[in-house]
Design brief:
Porin, four-stranded antiparallel β-sheet, mainly beta
C-alpha cells in the first residue's frame, strides 16, 4: 500500500534539521559554559585571571603575565528535561535518559609586552545528546499520523524512539594589543564545523498479531562549516575596576544531509538536502571590581541576536502556517553576578548565578520544531560554585559544580492540530567541571 507521507511529513522533518541537544545555561545555540572557571563563577566577561578568557574577554589577555598560558578542562552534564501530555488515553510523561560525560575545551595564549596571540578549541553550541529510548511527544504524533495511512491494516504502533546528537566544534585564533595601560583591543576568527545526527523510528503493528508489523527507521546526519569574526575591547579605567566587551558575528551555517539508513525511502529527507542553522551573533559585556584585596565581584550581560539568524521555517502542521523559526524564537539575553574570595594565597572560593530570558515572539510556533519539546527552551537560572587551588606557582586546579533550573511551562502543541493539546514541561540539569590553568 502506498503511504500518503504528506499528512505527517511536517511533523518530523524538523528533527532532521534539529541542531542538537540541551545546554547548561541559556539554549542550544548560545552556550556560555565553556570552561571550568565559568562553571564555578557563572560569569567571565570581565575576567583577566586565566586564559579561558580567550572566549570571554580576549582583549583582557594583555593583562596576563608574559609567557605561554594553557587551559584545559572538561564538563560532565546530567540533564533531565521532561514533558507530559494527554492524548485522551491518560497522562504520558517522557524524560531525557543518560548523561554527557565528556565536553572538553582547550585554550592557549602567548603574551609578550603589549601583545598577546591566542587560540582555542571549544564547543559554543550543542555538545550533548538527546536520548528518548521510549519515545517522546513527536514520535507519538508521528505514530498516530502514520497508522491511518495503511487503510486499517494496523491499529497501533510500538517501540518508538528518538536520539539526536549535536556538535559545533570551533577553532578560534586571533590577537590582542594594549593601546595603553587603560585600554586593550582584540580581533580574531572562529571556524565552526557542525555535525548533527538523528536516529528515530517506530513499528506499526496489528494487535491481533496476524499481520506482521512494519518497522520505520531513520538514521541521518547533517554537516556544515562556517566562519565568523570576534572583536573585543578591555577597559581598565581605575585600579580594581575592569570592563570587558566582546562581539561575535553571526556564523552562516548551511547543513547538508547524509542518509545512513532510511526505511521511509527518501520521502522525508533526501541525500544532499540542505538547510540553514546559523549560529547567532552575540554581545557580551562584563564589569569586574575588586571590593578588597581578597574579594572580587563581577556582573555580566549577554545578548544573542537570534532573529538575525537563518534557522529555516517551522510549521504548525501544514505549509500554510509556516513561519520563520528564528523570528518565532525572538532574541535571548542573560544577566548574572558572582563573587570570588581569595581565602589564602593558594586557595580561592567562588559562587555566582546567571539568569537567562527567552524573548519568544511565538513560543507555540517555535515548539512546532521537532526537538524543541525534547530539549526545552524556557527562562532559567544557573547557580555555580567551586574553587581554584594553586598546585604550584605555575599550575592551578579549577573545580566547579552547577545546577540549572528552568521555568515550568505549559505550551500548546500546534503540531498536534486539529487536537487541542497542552504539554507541561519541566527541566533541570547538573554539571561538574574540572580543569587546569598552566602558565609558563
Amino acid at each position: 500500500m502506498k503511504i500518503n507521507y504528506n499528512l505527517f511529513r511536517l511533523l518530523i522533518v524538523g528533527v532532521l534539521l534539529f541542531s542538537g541537544s540541551t545546554l547548561l545555561v541559556g539554549q542550544i545555540d548560545n552556550l556560555t559554559n565553556m570552561s571550568a572557571e565559568w562553571i564555578r563563577l557563572s560569569n567571565r566577561n570581565a575576567a583577566v585571571d586565566a586564559v579561558d578568557i580567550v572566549v570571554y574577554n580576549p582583549a583582557g589577555l594583555t593583562k596576563l603575565t608574559d609567557g605561554f598560558h594553557f587551559n584545559i578542562s572538561n564538563q560532565t552534564l546530567i540533564r533531565k528535561p521532561k514533558h507530559s501530555f494527554d492524548l485522551g488515553m491518560g497522562k504520558e510523561t517522557y524524560t531525557q535518559d543518560g548523561i554527557d560525560p565528556f565536553i572538553p575545551n582547550f585554550y592557549a595564549a602567548y603574551k609578550k609586552d603589549k601583545w598577546a596571540l591566542f587560540g582555542g578549541i571549544y564547543i559554543p553550541a550543542g555538545g550533548a545528546v538527546v536520548d528518548y529510548p521510549k519515545g517522546s511527544i513527536n514520535t507519538k504524533l508521528l505514530g498516530y499520523s502514520l497508522i491511518p495511512q495503511f487503510g486499517g491494516l494496523y491499529d497501533h504502533f510500538k517501540n518508538d524512539y528518538l536520539k539526536a546528537t549535536s556538535l559545533y566544534l570551533t577553532f578560534t585564533a586571533g590577537g590582542a594589543y594594549a593601546i595603553s595601560d587603560f585600554i586593550s583591543i582584540a580581533g580574531g576568527l572562529r571556524y565552526i564545523h557542525v555535525k548533527n545526527t538523528t536516529k528515530l523510528g517506530l513499528t506499526v503493528a496489528d494487535s491481533t498479531g496476524i499481520i506482521p508489523g512494519t518497522a520505520f527507521d531513520l538514521n541521518a546526519k547533517m554537516t556544515g562549516n562556517g566562519l565568523g569574526g570576534i572583536l573585543g575591547i578591555d577597559i581598565f579605567p581605575l585600579e580594581g575596576l575592569n570592563i570587558g566587551i566582546r562581539y561575535e558575528t553571526k556564523v552562516k551555517l548551511e547543513l547538508e544531509a547524509d542518509i545512513i539508513k532510511d526505511s521511509f525511502e527518501g520521502m522525508l529527507i533526501s541525500q544532499g538536502d540542505k538547510s540553514r542553522r546559523d549560529l547567532p551573533a552575540m554581545l557580551g559585556v562584563g564589569v569586574s571590581y575588586d571590593i578588597t584585596s581578597c574579594l572580587r565581584a563581577e556582573v555580566d550581560f549577554n545578548y544573542f541576536f537570534q532573529k538575525q539568524a537563518d534557522w529555516g521555517i517551522t510549521s504548525a502542521g501544514n505549509l500554510e502556517n509556516a513561519i520563520l523559526t528564528a523570528k518565532a524564537a525572538g532574541d535571548c539575553y542573560s544577566l548574572g553576578a558572582c563573587l570570588a574570595y581569595q581565602a589564602c594565597p593558594k586557595f580561592q572560593v567562588s559562587a555566582g548565578f546567571l539568569y537567562t530570558i527567552f524573548d519568544f515572539k511565538d513560543m507555540a510556533g517555535y515548539f512546532t520544531t521537532v526537538g524543541a519539546f525534547e530539549v526545552l527552551y524556557s527562562d532559567n537560572c544557573n547557580l555555580g560554585a567551586g574553587f581554584c587551588y594553586a598546585l604550584t606557582n605555575k599550575v592551578k586546579l579549577n573545580v566547579g559544580v552547577g545546577t540549572t533550573i528552568w521555568k515550568d511551562e505549559t505550551i500548546k502543541a500546534l503540531a498536534a492540530y486539529p487536537l487541542d493539546l497542552d504539554v507541561q514541561t519541566t527541566n533541570k540539569s547538573f554539571a561538574f567541571a574540572i580543569g587546569t590553568n598552566i602558565s609558563l
